[in-house]
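Researcher: Here's the sequence for the chain we discussed earlier.
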Amino acid sequence: MDYNRRSSSNKKVVAVVGGGLVGALNACYFAKRGFQVEVFESREDIRNAKIVKGRSINLALSHRGRQALKQVGMEDKIVSKGIPMHSRMIHSRNGKQSAIPYGKKGQYILSVDRANLNKELLSEAETYPNTKMNFDHKLLDWNAETGAMTFIGPEGTKEEIQADLIVGCDGAFSAIRKQFLRRSRFNYSQTYIPHGYLELTMPSQNGDFSMKPDFLHIWPRNTFMMIALPNLDKTFTCTLFMPFEEFEKLTTGDQVIEFFEKYFPDTIPLIGVEALKKDYFRLPAQAMVSVKCSPYHLGNMCVIMGDAAHAVVPFYGQGMNAGFEDCLVFNEIMDQLNEDFSAVLPEYSRVRVPDDHAIADLAMYNYVEMRAHVNSKWFLFRKHVDNFLHIIMPRTIIPLYTMVTFTRTRYHEAIKRWHWQDKVINHGLLITATAALLGGTYLLIKHPPNISQIPVDHLWTRLQAFKPF
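Model: Thanks. This is the structure I predict for it:
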């Protein structure tokens, strides 16, 4: 069957391919502008589905994502269903816990449920009379010159759809992006990291959380780690990140328990021995891919956003936030250039590509920080120094995490500033340490202690007790 979705009111038709988080939010943005919006999703409507397929890693909503939601009046609704996390809670192997705040007092990120957020955004998009949802529509192909798309509908019939603008929000394995790959001067790369992830559930205990809920819990173990985020139903979703070969070594329930007794002993009574044995083998470890490409547009008819343009590994908690900010940045450029697609699309690529590439790199870097650096005394010392300097010089020194998570500083500019600050602070610490050393040496020469009066055994005891930082 052939369909022409052109509106009788001559409104331009925007086809949003992908009804996930970024696609649903984009539908709200374009509908709010008065376009005729058609959303096409290959899956069934998740609001009616008994089982929601796809990724379920909890999401950390922060400033960028909140600002994007705010523009379509959704911030308060989503925030009310999130759980604030003010700090990382680091769990050592001996059971000791220590908190590392994310930012200044009052700054926090929110643990939000992916499926619920997606449902809320789809329902919001549907409140606009100029939006139409098309579920069970799988894209077969599309034409970059004419904007014509061919879908397989729910009955297996082919449908031809025409649009003025195609917005590809169909994930890391985007069908829209395939057409880009056929063009010259389109750069594309994908990288699978050697680690996979596996999700476990920590149930509630006596109707309450089994751990403190206002933290993102991390068990860093250098080459791997586990994290836990709180849910509204008082459970925690635990995610184990580990090299695939390590996952493959654990083939029996007893081996899993032995592994957890060695590395995560404090979690066994909280998850439960039998539940742990069962959950570990419920699904195989899932892969994580990082995608970079440029440009993000084809002519004046198609643009890609979210994971279709820049899938990132989840270790900076910015995948969704960056995708939501895509929608916001595009909307801001539409304001600047009066909705002229021929000018908006190339400007969007020019502005957004360097930022999304930067957050992809930062997400890779942060995995090393989360699983290894947080165990380092130097790392913790630098965190305290950075935060102290930020308090006394809030405009001059801004920690990288603060820039990324609690501001809309462009990602690539945040990295540049971070490198500059790092040099300045390290030089300052070196000068301070050198001055202290020289000053101490001078005082020792000027006023040498009379160590002859100190018994040798006392001196030896003091030396043994001395522990460098």
